[in-house]
Design a protein that fits this description.
The complex is a heterodimer of chains A (452) and B (186).
Chain A: H1 3-10, H2 14-35, H3 41-57, H4 59-72, E1 76-80, H5 83-96, E2 101-104, H6 108-112, H7 115-121, E3 125-128, H8 131-138, H9 155-166, H10 175-192, E4 195-198, E5 202-204, E6 210-214, H11 218-225, E7 228-234, E8 238-239, H12 244-257, E9 264-268, E10 276-282, H13 286-290, H14 306-310, H15 312-317, H16 328-338, H17 355-359, H18 366-379, H19 381-384, H20 390-393, H21 400-416, H22 419-422, H23 443-450
Helix pairs in contact in A: 2-12, 3-12, 9-10, 16-18
Chain B: H1 3-12, H2 33-43, E1 47-50, H3 51-61, E2 66-68, E3 93-97, E4 100-102, E5 108-111, H4 112-115, H5 120-123, E6 126-131, E7 136-137, H6 140-147, E8 154-158, E9 163-164, E10 172-173, E11 180-185
Parallel strand pairs in B: 1-11, 2-3, 3-6, 4-7, 6-11
Antiparallel strand pairs in B: 4-5, 5-8, 9-10
The complex binds iron/sulfur cluster.
Amino acid sequence: MSHPQNAAEFLKNQAKAKWHDETLWFVRDKRDRISKTIPEWENLRNLASQIKDNVLANLGSYLEQFEQNAIKNGIHVHWAKDGDEHNRIVLDILQKHHCTAIVKSKSILTEECHLNPFLEKNGVEVVDTDLGERIVQLLHQPPSHIVLPAIHLKKREISELFHEKLQTEKGNEDPTYLTHAARLHLREKFLGAKVALTGVNFGIAETGEFVVCTNEGNADMGVHLADVHVACMGIEKILPRRKDLGIFLRLLARSATGQPVTNYNSHFRSPAPGKELHIVLVDNGRTAQLAREKFKNSLKCIRCGACMNTCPIYRRSGGYSYGSTVPGPIGSILSPGLDMKKHSTLPFASTLCGSCSDVCPVKINIHEQLYEWRQEITKTHGELGKGLSMWIAAGIFKSPLAYKISGGLMRKALKVLPDSLIYHPINAWGKSRDLPEAPKESFQQWYQKNRS
Amino acid sequence: MSSRENILSAIQGIALESKPLPEIPDFGIPGEVEATFVQSIQGNKGEVMDKAEFESWLAAEKHSKIISRSASFPDASNLYLPADAHELNDLDLAILDGQFGVAENGAIWLEDAELGLRVLPFITEHLVIVLDRNSLVATMHQGYARIGDASSGFGVFIAGPSKTADIEQSLVVGAHGAKSLRVVLV
Ligand code: SF4
């Protein structure tokens, strides 16, 4: 299904769609408020962007330096060119340790590689330990947001799920009660796991260490109780120097949730005595993206989710409407690089209002890249065949004028439209580009009339 | 060709314009360091106490299983650090020394030497970190300057108790790790 079709599905539940929109806006607003308490905020964003530019310009040598230092620290380093190889490497490690059950903290990379279904097919039970991820795992769903995996669910649904799976009281929807039930349930899993898997937020070339950030402490509970820690890391996660972490840790949590720092920021340099530490360095399309001059900046992403929280389309269409591992604006410039045909409608799931680029802590020109992808997709439309809407074929987005107007139009209109119109399923605000067709009066006229 | 060579040669084949690595200026904070630190910890749902307040809290609480590795409270322990970390599952209270604290966000740095077992500050029901008030720094930049090139196998910035907001964005303290954090400034 295309993004507009999926968005229409999401908008059928108007009350929930409204809640989703407002909740993410609230997170965005928290980000704004905390960023304004740091006078050097823009400076930090510039520095982060420059550091990442430098990383991309020297990625090969930083990776080699990272590997060399990690090995010196007693870490086993593996390289995987794609998701399949990554999955096989992880399975090999598990089989060597006769391990049939693992705990896993948040890793978008392992979602991207479809590790869970692969391991389950091979007889390994995988328990996601981040609360939001555990919730969606019990529902057999993927996360709908990279930082807030269960943001599409209401507490009633979670209460029903926990009643069924964790035997909580029927009808008890208290988040504290439900969270503590999950704590007890997952505590057992932590105590029983021989191998723990984590993602990586940052890998440091000069020291060979890597950093994992959580608020729940689930990554640490897993790895420190297990005998073996496997960390899965996209090759773009490298930073040159330990002190660069000062910049990135200041930006990450503030951009993600509006908190000053994540509560646990763990630096892994070498395994604890008697234990084993593995890193899997994964390409899976990253070198191909690096070779695309117009799109390589997307590799600077630190997965904070701010561009999702601010995006008028994401907020009104939900993470699943994108049909890709990373949803939202950044997902819409990463995914077409992996599979242009499958993700051809994503770059159009945007108003090009530029809000994503404004909040991005590493200053990725997200909305410009969305526009560039539209050009690419429109150009290759003939090869891609059907599946693209008529209006794309009509070349509306080749017109710089349409580009200019549509951005401004959405920006202003969303402030003045009544909810019933915005969240109405047959309306288009959630459905990216369908709106501008057949206006009864010009937007200028309408806006003048309705503004007061 | 191995995947390692595959990846590295793919990167080498891309013409990449060189980009300089910027130097990081020494940013400060507007407020006073200790007051800002206290505010940050409270904002993260932790509590800050002085030594006397902590001692009377400890006496009143009557925790049954306590491990103290703090040089300031050597006699507070009633348990030894076990050989197997799993035995810490029913630990009530861990008292640890922090190396330094960061005012802007309340993050406190601990390494293997302070932890004894890496799981200790996570698995304990309640966590107390003892900090020399002279060890506070303003920002993360100064924090990393303090860490320098220390080579501990593990180090962690802890800024508050374990928390989550994954159910309808309602903040709940005590997800998997410690349900409370008290910072004792000495
Ligand atoms: S693109 Fe920028 S704003 Fe979006 S998730 Fe990545 S770092 Fe965050």
